[in-house]
Amino acid sequence: MRKNSTLPMKIIFLGPAVFCYLVVFLYPTLRTAFMSFFKVDAITDALAKWSFTGLGNYASLFKSTLFMRSMQNIAGIWFYGGLLVFALGLLFAVILTSGVRYKAFFRAFIYLPNVISAVAMGTMWMQYVYSPRYGLLKNVFGFLKLEKLAAIQLTSPDYIFAALLVAYCFGMVGYFMLIFMAGIEKIPVDYYEVAVIEGASRWKQFVKITIPLMKNVLRTNIVLWTISTVGFFVWSMIFSPLNPEPGTVTPMVYMYQMIFGANMVVTERNVGIGAAVGVLLSLLVVVVFAAATKLIRDDDVEF
CB neighbours of 74 closer than 8 A, spacing ≥ 6? Predict the structure, then answer.
């Protein structure tokens, strides 16, 4: 009787959460996966208007030069941006956990770009840093007598991907720095004290103690960085708002244009192809998560 008496309470407390999960997450996910096998003109079209294409939408994606370019773009952002963000984030984390003065101030200062919206940050970089007329970099290069660098228009098609990458990484360093700091501060201080007694240098302590004991943190950051890269959208739209350059097109931009309206990115709207992009990106995150879990293990580490 006691077990049965708790059933109504379970339904009351769990029911809303389960309902929201089914309606907000599970149903859209299954509908998107199902839709990826059909040609759909509008996202609100009834099922009767859908035209079955099988794997045709996926085949069209891999035949699309622009979509493959968008995949190359996020691969570059994931690899080069990941190296830059992880290197700077880990460097700042090590410095700020080494007993430096004004730690709270520097931590907040480095994290500040994450508090500002991506739209505001992107606009700042476009209008005040990369501006070909009065941009910060143009003035700095001019002051240093680097006329060739000052003459480069960083928002031109030849340089816009690099400019976008630098701006995006600037805004992400603080976030991953905090995660690295949390991982470092969790390591017992005794390990470092013993290493100092044994005569180990700072670099050796970092390589032999810090890195091995932060495998789980590194794995988490790789997954979070992958999710962030796969969802790369706002920055691309800010750097090329009307007719995106090939260097700024990402799969999310391609998917958005396929679903909500064609322009220079895509010439014909097809919600089914947009759904196929979403499925592929979801599978990509799952693959990276599985690979990171398999390759980066901390089973042999105890502390």
Answer: 229, 230, 232, 250, 251
Q: What angle do CA 246, 247, 251 make, to 5 degrees?
A: 70
pLDDT digits (tens, 9 = 90+) for 81-139: 999 999 999 999 999 988 888 888 999 999 999 888 888 998 889 888 888 888 888 88
* Count of CB atoms situated within 10 Å of the CB of 175: 18
Does residue 243 lie within any of the structural domains? yes
Distance CA 159, CA 163 (A): 6
- Tokens representing 13 are 């407390």
Determine which helix (DSSP H) or strand (DSSP E) holds 257, and give its type and residue range: helix 251-260
* Nearest Cα to Cα of residue 235 among 221, 253, 222, 223: 253
Residue 149 lies in a domain: yes
Q: Does the pLDDT value for residue 261 go beyond 80?
A: no
Residue 290 has pLDDT above 60, yes or no: yes
Residue 296: pLDDT band (50, 70, 90) is confident
Q: How many helices (H) and strands (E) does the chain have?
A: 17, 2
Q: Flag whether 58 is in a domain.
A: yes
Q: Is residue 203 part of a domain?
A: yes
Residue 39, SS3?
A: strand
Task: For CA atoms 97, 101, 104, 110, give the dihedral sign.
Answer: negative
The predicted-structure confidence for 47-66, as pLDDT tens digits, reads as follows 888 889 889 899 999 998 88
Task: Find the CATH number of the domain harbouring 255.
Answer: 1.10.3720.10
**Inter-axis angle of helices 160-186 and 65-76, to 10 degrees?**
40
Q: Is 42 exposed, middle or buried (0-12, 13-18, 19+ CB in 10 A)?
A: exposed
For residue 217, what are the contacts with CB-CB under 8 A and spacing of at least 6?
Answer: 179, 180, 182, 183
Domain containing 63 equals 53-295
